[in-house]
Amino acid sequence: MDNNKSLIKTIAIVILSLIALTFIGLFVWMLIRYNDVSSDVNGQIITAVNAAVDEKTMELETEFAEREKEPFRDFTGPVDYGELSFEYPKTWSLYVASDASKGGDYAAYFNPIEVNAVSNNTINALRVTIRDKAFDDVTAEYQRYVERKDSNLSVEAITINGVAANRYIGKIPNSDLNGIIVIFKIRDKTAILQTDSMLFESDFNTLLETVHFNA
User: pTM value?
Assistant: First the structure.
């Protein structure tokens, strides 16, 4: 009888020990899982906070850069060439390559901080050319590029200072650049305003709204 009681007691102790070990194992497993989940949540929170900070920083930097462009400067071209004028950011530099004082084409370049060396494949925020050539002749040149089979240049009609103009978007002829070109008639000449990169699209569109000239 005593042996049976002792055996039952032993079995009970073993069962209780196994149950205790199981609960301890579950507790340890849950604790590990909690720490993993907690670490993951904390990591996600830190990542989200860093992303929000980065986004806000970029937003503030963009706002600051936009404010730095003001007040805008006034550009005025040659009187004999229709006195083309517009406003441009004060953070842009201007380089007049050809002032047309002795006739020919007028050419000027604009870019933030400093104008880049001028070539077909260097980017400047704005190129201003007043060609001593008829509007129809100049647009015919660009139309040939638009009609090419491998063309990535599209054209649409717009109005600048109350005058009909052509707006070209895409691959700039004779270059590897993608930008915007606006062409319009000034007296017996043709004005060409071009931005070499879509990064300047907003500034370019804002500038176009301020264009004036003597037609």
Answer: 0.72
SS (H, E, C) the chain: CHHHHHHHHHHHHHHHHHHHHHHHHHHHHHHHHHHHHHHHHHHHHHHHHHHHHHHHHHHHHHHHHHHHCCCCEEEECCHHHCCCEEEECCCEEEEEEECCECECCEEEEEEECCCCCCCCCCCCCEEEEEECCCHHHHHHHHHHHHCCCCCCEEEEEEEECCEEEEEEEEECCCCCCEEEEEEEEECCEEEEEEECCHHHHHHHHHHHCCCECCC
Give the number of other CB atoms < 10 A from CB of residue 183: 22
Residues for the chain: how many in total? Answer: 215
Domain residue ranges of the chain, discontinuous segments joined by +: 1-68, 73-208
Is CATH 3.40.1000.10 what the domain over 73-208 is classified as, yes or no? yes
Task: Give the tens place of pLDDT for each residue, 148-172.
Answer: 998 999 999 999 999 999 999 999 9
Query: Which two structure tokens, joined as six digits, stand for 26?
Result: 């579950």
* R_g of the chain computed on alpha carbons: 35
What's the pLDDT band for 42 if we cut at 50, 70, 90? low
Q: CA 11 to CA 14: how far, in whole Å?
A: 5
CA–CA distance, 106 with 37 (Å, rounded to integer): 67
